[in-house]
Structures are given as C-alpha cells and as structure tokens.
Amino acid sequence: MNALSLDDLDRIYGQPKGPAKAKALDHVDRYGRRFIALSPFCVISAAGPDGSLDVSPRGGEPGFVHVEDDRTIMLPDRPGNNRLDVLRNIVGGDGQIGFMFMIPGFDDIYRVNGRAVLTADETLLERFVEFGRKPRSILRVTVQEAFLHCPKALMRARLWEADAQVERTTLPSLSEMILDQLGLGKPQVDEAQVLERYREQL
Length: 202
Known about the structure:
Largest sheet: 7 strands, antiparallel
GO molecular function, one term: hydrolase activity
Shape: globular
InterPro entries: Pyridox_Oxase_FMN-dep, Pyridox_Oxase_N, Split_barrel_FMN-bd
Distance between the termini: 46 Å
Keywords: Hydrolase
Protein name: Phosphohydrolase
CATH architecture of the largest domain: Roll
CATH class of the largest domain: Mainly Beta
Helix content: 25-40%
Number of strands: 7
Strand content: 25-35%
Radius of gyration: 20 Å
CATH topology of the largest domain: Pnp Oxidase, Chain A
Number of helices: 8
C-alpha cells in the first residue's frame, strides 16, 4: 500500500471553493453563540506533548459550554472516570484543542479550534454549578478558528432518524463488555443499578 502525499490529496480531491474555504472565522459570531447555547453535547480533542491524541465526549444542559465573549469559551469539567486523557494532554501539551458541537435533530455541526488552559479558580467554579454540583475544573479556551460544518456526515449516518436507532439489547451492557474484556466475570449488580449510580454522579 502506498501512502498518499499532499500532492495526491490535491489531485484526488481538488481545492475547497467559495464559502467552504472562506467560512472559517477567528471568533464566535452570533450564529455560533446561538448554536453553542442550544447544544447539550460536544466532542473535544487535544494532543499531548508526545503527539498522542485523545477524543472525548462532553455533555450537559443546553449551553453547558459558555461563550464568555466572541474569542473565549469555557467548558466546565464534570466527574468522570478520572482517566483525564484530554485534560492531561492540555496541561502537558501546547494547549491546542478542537470542539465539535451538536444539537439533537440538527445535522449541522459547529466547530471551534483554539488554545486552552485549565483552571480550578474557586470564583469561576461557582459560576458553573450544574446538577447541584460545581465542576472540578474549567477549560478556558481562546478561540482561533470557528465555523459551521456541512451536514453530509450526519445525513449519511441518519443519526437522529427514529428508524435508524439501534436497540440497546443488540450489545451487552457497558459493564458486561468491560468486565469480559478484563476477564473479571459477570457484573455483581444489574444494569439498572449501574445506570442509577451514573445518574447520582452527574
């Protein structure tokens, strides 16, 4: 197999034209602000000092990511599994981060790239109480690029369409799969108890 070069990409795909090339802004405009305010879910990515990359989901009430001004957004970090892959990459790397915001029912996506710093400033944490809890930390992101992404990927995936939904019983529960991967046998509690524990930790 021969790996493609940059010249190969230009030959195969051609150059972006018109709005596809010009749409990237260096700030969050009024449409981006509204999109983020409606979004209960985003995916973030960051590279560590050794170039290793991590991608991680984040969720909350719509607008859980705050637009402080047109060049600053803030993401509160909630309790998880304490792997902290993205946070370790941010703190240990150069702080570069990418966001992909989604709104249920929308095929459009809003993307933001920038440079983040992590803070646990108590005054700032108090501003981000959700589910009755303060976050553990806040990612403060200086926006470098922001743009709307075309809907083709989500249209192909039919992500929001009812007849495209997969029954959860198609796969074992998360607990069953992880314990089996680790050779630790069957879960000691049923899935309803596991989910209830997750809800208590939101």
